[in-house]
Amino acid sequence: HTLTHKNAITAQYMTSGHAAGNYVGYAGGRKSCARCHSHEGFVETQFTGMDTTAFNIQIPTPIGCATCHESHNTFDFENDGQDYALRTIAPIELIGWEGTIDMGNNSNLCGTCHQPRRPELVADANGNFKITSSHYGPHHGPQVTVLFGMGGYEFDGILPYPEAGSGAHYKDVTCVGCHMAEGDNNDGGHTFWPTNAACTACHTNGVPDIAEEIHGLLDQLAELLRAEGVLDADNHLVTGEYPIAVAGAFFNYISIEEDRSVGVHNPKYVKAILTNTIE
Asked: Please, are residues 105 and 176 in contact by the beta-carbon 8 Å criterion?
């Protein structure tokens, strides 16, 4: 409760994407976005259990301390435990998908929002899928399903898909272990930027650099999608009706792009998804 302690956390948090990003603008007047793009929306939906807020939030405010943490209620720590606990660490209810994901720790809070929020692709009677929105595809943060190893349109191909939940970053480290490891004001903690120390604690022989390989696979897939007409010359989605395989290939491409870890969250799954889609 000292200012020194609080100010250090605040300084870290203000460098995070949650604090510095422009995400809150999506919450204004959009019930389906407010759940994760505003403080008010997240708090409301944690109480109601709904996917959207009841009404549009006219003046949403950004995610802050009290978004993820409950307010003090009793101050009776001996009997009530941590009286400033996280609002939820319950298993993650996937929106638009059946089932839950349970990391078994505080990382479940992260996955409450960092999930695709798009249902699985289903072909129509003619084997096609109609993309009606230029924003189609996974939500901008589908990290939890990539981390778990699910959610892609899985083509058969040369690489086998690892068992869901088998990735080391999911079962051994999870979100908090990498993104909130002890650091300084520039990384770790409430900056949510992974620290080198968190990586080298496991990768004692050096951290594998897979970014170039994943970027190369994404570029190959983008070229194929441009040839199919589902991406334009600037790699923007073109709405229309496509064979389910083409729509699925786009879904895989944008899933890995929007995950933004360049494969780090689940290297084996990401390589399999991209390689088999290209094949």
From this structure: yes
Within 8 A by CB and 6+ apart from 147, the residues are: 167, 169, 170, 174, 175, 265, 266
- Rounded to two decimals, what is the model's pTM? 0.92
* CA atoms of 10 and 274, how far apart (whole Å): 39
Q: Which residue, chain included where needed, has tokens 């650091």?
A: 183
Place of tokens 């009997």: 79
Per-residue pLDDT of the chain (279 residues; tens, 9 = 90+): 678 888 888 999 999 999 987 889 889 888 989 999 999 999 999 999 999 999 999 999 999 999 999 877 766 767 766 666 889 999 999 988 888 999 999 999 999 999 998 777 899 999 999 999 988 998 888 999 999 999 999 999 999 999 999 999 999 999 999 999 988 778 999 999 998 888 998 998 888 899 999 999 999 999 999 999 999 999 999 999 999 999 999 999 999 999 999 999 999 999 999 999 999
Going by the DSSP 8-state scheme, the letter that residue 83 receives in this structure is T
Separation between Cα atoms, residue 138 and residue 258, nearest integer Å: 8
- Do the beta carbons of residue 188 and residue 182 sit within 8 Å? yes
Contact by Cβ (8 Å): 114, 141: yes
Name beta bridge partners: 203: none
- Maximum Cα–Cα distance for the chain, whole Å? 65
Written as six digits, the tokens of 113 are 């929002």
